[in-house]
Amino acid sequence: MGQYIDFAIIFFLIKALVNLKAVVVTKLKYKHIRFLGAAGIGMTALTQILEGSGVKISRSDLSYTKNDPLDADIDLAVRSTAVPETDPDLIELRARGVEIWHRSDMLTYLSSDYKQLVVTGTHGKTTCTAMLAHVLVQAGLDPSYAVGGVLANYGNNGKAGQGEYFVLEGDESDKSYLKSKPYVALLTYVEPDHLENYPGGFEEIKKCFLGFLETAHYKVICLDDPLLADYAAKHKGLVTYSSKVDADYFIDIESRVLRVRGLGEYKLELGMHGGHNLVNACGVLAVACQLGISIETALKALASFKGIKRRFELINASYGIHHVRIYDDYAHHPTELSALMHGALAMKPKRLVMVYQPHHPERTKQLWRDFVRVMREFPAEHLLLVADIYVARSKHIEGVCSERLVAEVGRENVRYLAPAAASLDIQGNYKDMVAALKPGIDAVLQDGDLLLITGAGNIAKIVRAFQ
């Protein structure tokens, strides 16, 4: 009888220790946290994680018609990278002596007691992070997670779980991923981007990513990326995945057959379109297996994955008199645009009409040649409309504009999407995106078109008008 009591006590203690993970957020010494730039996707993940913790939360954002009041009891402010130094709330809270954290500091704190599963890279990190969180949920591991996109299965992008793992998207745009301490690091692709935050250029980007990789207990990398393939040839102790070369986890895009070294072949069923998403799923399977999840369980979970908001998201299956299928996506880097285009063309539409809003003048200038190259690849029988560049944390740059970009592409089927109305806000963006762009889009639609709206700026505001 005594041994059963002992086992019961041990079980109770283990369960209690696990449950402590769920209440770690309640150990914050702060009583009222103000989120500045609260509408950003990274900030919503944090507030969702803190739900039910007992911590009072208030919010402000430029997109809000009315912010929460600046109560006297605010004892911590969390700001996103998008919040300028001139933000009135930030100025007021600093004057009060309130402690200010960056978004990444809060994420680091909330995940510090967990085994961190960190997904980063120039492309695919949001999709991989979301897929991985879903696989762990379906495997019964009840993870915590913070994702840069809303998971369609759960309607959120942040959650505090009771399991030992915290799945988080490592943001390379401001180097904040370097604050994490990965138990598993999944590195997708390494390409030039956000060069304004890397004074050393692409060499600094490579150094940061590869240095980060070295800090992980398990390292999972994509050999489709030439830099990572070269890295793998010189280093041991890696888990690799690919659609192009031999790897521990190899996915054949055409047949969707997954070959796992030492385990055999499997059929990968995935509801998301595009070969790039099959590669993303391949990387997630590699991570799942390192955690002891069976390949069968992981494959079943991926088959039930419903996708992410703004990642090739179906908005309307039959819009207007032309019965146009409409999708929304977040792609904004040249490589992402190319993958998105090929993914959409693989669906064999009668005609693809892609509407793209470039994101930030700096990025457009830095990657100008790549944008021109990718846009010239757009098949002549399909149509690419390029809207004006979105400006957020930056300013317009003379000579860097969509009209000039389209002119340099020099293709009849790549056109500048001129605004029908041009009332601008203080940053030079259209105040009413629907009034500005929808008439021009409607005017070109034909029977059987597939309309794909993409960009990381405010282009998403026109999507609801097509629902």
Strand count = 20
Q: Which architecture of the largest domain does the CATH hierarchy give at level 2?
A: 3-Layer(aba) Sandwich
Backbone CA Rg: 23 Å
Largest sheet: 10 strands, mixed
What is the helix content? 25-40%
Please, what is the CATH homologous superfamily of the largest domain? Mur-like, catalytic domain
Strand content: 15-25%
| Global shape | globular
Q: What structural category do the secondary elements indicate?
A: alpha/beta
N- to C-terminal distance: 65 Å
Q: How is the topology of this model organized?
A:
Elements: H1 2-22, E1 32-36, H2 41-50, E2 56-60, E3 76-79, H3 88-96, E4 99-102, H4 103-111, E5 115-120, H5 125-138, E6 144-151, E7 156-159, E8 165-169, E9 182-187, H6 201-214, E10 218-222, H7 226-234, E11 238-242, E12 249-252, E13 257-260, E14 264-267, H8 275-290, H9 295-303, E15 313-319, E16 324-329, H10 334-345, E17 351-356, H11 361-366, H12 368-376, E18 383-386, H13 402-409, E19 414-416, H14 433-442, E20 449-454
Parallel strand pairs: 1-2, 1-3, 3-4, 5-8, 5-9, 6-8, 9-10, 10-11, 11-12, 16-20, 17-18, 17-20, 18-19
Antiparallel strand pairs: 6-7, 12-13, 13-14, 15-16
